[in-house]
Every structure is written in C-alpha cells, then in structure tokens.
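Shipment paperwork, digital attachment
Item: protein structure file
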Amino acid sequence: MEEQQNIDYHETEISIKELIEVIWRGKYLIALFTLIFLIIAIAGSVVYDKTNSQVATVAALQWTGVSKGEYPDGSRFDYNTAFESYVFSEAIENSGLSLDTISVRSNFKVTPIVPSSILAQIERSIEQGEEPLNYHASEFKIELDNGNLGISVEEGKILLNNIITQFRVDFERRFINKVQVYNILSEDIVEEDYLDVYDILVAQASVIEDAMTTRAQSGYFSPTLGVSFGDISARVDIIRQLYLDKIQSRVNAYVLTKDKDFLELNYQYKIETAQLKLDKAIKKEIELQLLLNNYDGTKTTLIIPGLIEDGTELDLDTYYNTLIESKIDLQNEIVDLGEDISYYQQQIQRLNGQDPTFTVTTAEQAEEAVKVEDSIDSAIFKLSKTIEDANIILREYTDYQTSNTIKPLMAPEYVSSVNTMLYAGVGLILGGMTGVMVVLIREYWDKEEQETS
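Attachment content:
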C-alpha cells in the first residue's frame, strides 16, 4: 500500500514538472496573447472614456437673495432652468463649434453641493418627524458631457467656460442696472447767460452725486483710479464750493448778464409764478385759521404707568396738532415766497439803475464777469473730468458685480469615467490565462497525434 502511494506521488510530481515545462516552452505564445489582450484593454478603455468623458467645474453663485432661493428681484431661482436656451446658443457660437442647443442642453448638468453638516440636520429632522430644513445651495457642480457631444476635452472646457460667461452676461442684462453719467456740458453752454450756465452746472453736479451716493455704501474701491464712490461725491462737493457757489454769488451780487432784457423778463416771470403760489398759500392759511377757530377739540388720553403711583395721564389732540403744524408750514412758505418776490423786484431795479443802494460800476461788472467766466471754464473742466472718472468706476463696479454673480471656484477639469489601470490589469490576467490555455490545448493535441501515430 505504501509502495503504491509513493508511485502516485512520483507520477504527480512528474506531471507538475511537465506542466511547467509545457508552459515554459509556450512562453512566447503566452506573452503574445498577454500583449494582445493588454493592448485591446487599454484601447477599449480609451475609446470608451472618449465617448463618455466629462468636463466639470465648481461654481459659487453670489447675489442678494440666492441663499433664499431667489433672484435679486425676488423671483424664484431654479438651478434646473437658470441657464436659458440663448445662453447655450451664444456659448456654442463663441466656442466655434457646430453643435445644436438642444444636444448641449441635454448633456449639461447642474448639481447643488450641500455641506455634510446640512445633510445631517435634514436627516435628523426627518427622523424626528420635524419639517426638514429648507436649505438653498449657493455652490454647484457644473458638468458637460463632452464625450457624448463628440468633442474633445479641450473643446469641452472652452464650451463650459463660455456657458458660464454667457450666464453672467444674461444675469447682468436682467438684474444689474448699468448706469452711466451723461455729460450735458456741451461746448456751446458758455454762450448761455450766466445764471443759465450755473443751473446747468448744478444739474450736472447733482447727476454725478446721485449716481455716486446710491452706491457709496457698497464700499467699492476702483483699482484703476484708486478712489471710491464717496471720494468722487466729495470731489463734486468741493467743485460746488470752489466754483459753483462763487459763480452764483458774483452773478447775483453784481447783477451780471449777457442779455439784460431777457434776464428782466425772466425775473418778471419768476415774480408772477411766486405771486401765484403766495396767493394760494395765503388762502390756505386763512382756511386753516377758520378751522382752528371753530374746532371744538377731541382729546385722546394716554396713560403711562410707573411714573407715579397711579400712573401719568397725557391728553393728546392729534388733529389739532396737525392743523397747527400745517399752519406753521404755510406761514414759512408765505415768508419765503415774499422774500423771493422782493429779491426779484430788487434785481429788476438794479438792472434798470433804479436801486440807489446798488453802486457797482460798469467797469466793476466787467471785471467780475471775467472772473465768473473763468470759474465757469474751470467748473466745466473739473466736472467733465469727474464725469469720466465716475463712468470708469461705474463700469468697474458693474464688472465687479457680474464677475461675482457666478464665480468658478476651480478651472474646468477632465473627469474620467474609466479606470485605465484596472482595464490594463484585467487585460493582463485574461491575456495570460488565454495564452496558457492555448499552450495547454496545443500540447494536448500534439500528444494525441503522437499516440495515434
């Protein structure tokens, strides 16, 4: 029995050696099959990856209301429909690609990124039977399936960048108010009368100030000019003090004009207008006085506890107080209108030389007129330069707003859908196994032929 076991062991040992020898003799064939399968696996992974590859980026949406799921105007923001068809068409055209909007849109995907802490809170709320946390994402993963579109990775990156750029342009068009300060200081305004020029200069200064003041709270600082909205607004205020106020003071004090008859006619018009307003104000004051004289009074008692032991009582008559306030306002208006009328009448007298207190000579008027014209020229120059700077900072601020509307947190990157190393490993294994099987089968056939012979 023991002898039989030794014989079987010996035969087994011989068969293993023969198997190794057979495999060794067929090593080149095995290597060939392994190489062929490796090449097929790698080529297949590359082809599959090319047809299924994607480019992706992560972008942050930054505007007022996005955390509430709203656009700046309060309308609902839905990331699934945020990118309009014309956004894709413009991006395709700018990328120089021959693609249709529908195919690009169907291979474009926006996925909200929800922090793990928020996810945990939502899950906890659901488990406890509470209303889930209403979270609106502000960061999104934006993907483009360039493989399915039949374009290269680089073309996909360019297209994805252009889609984001066109979304920014569309957002600017829809929600950002682009403001530019219009320059009304044409060269021919110096031909107008001094007071008309002054009014134009004041209007221009007010336009600049309004544009700057409404944005001063943003704290934006121009990288080109090195100034803020508040700085430009302060510059306009300095121009008012150094030039505009002096123009008005000299023109009024010295009764300067280029057209005496027209100025007198203008003063007459202002007198008539002020007199009409004065008559209306006097009439309203008389009516208010009658209401006050005939008013019996209605009191409202207000108890303020804690001031004394039983509280403090205040008797208020809100309607009576309103009547008194209205009368005071009318009286102030009457005084102002009366002073305006007296001033215009005095100016007419001075124009006609009928005011004995006005002792300014013609030579003095001519001298002051030169100073006024110099101030006008300086004011026009300063305001024109300020308008240029104002428009620069307004353009930069608009660009700043739109650049932060959708801010890519990373450049578009290639996203592989295939593990090439895994495919290569599988190819090596399958190639080696196939080669071994072919070698063993060939050896078996050779032995069969020998035995038959």
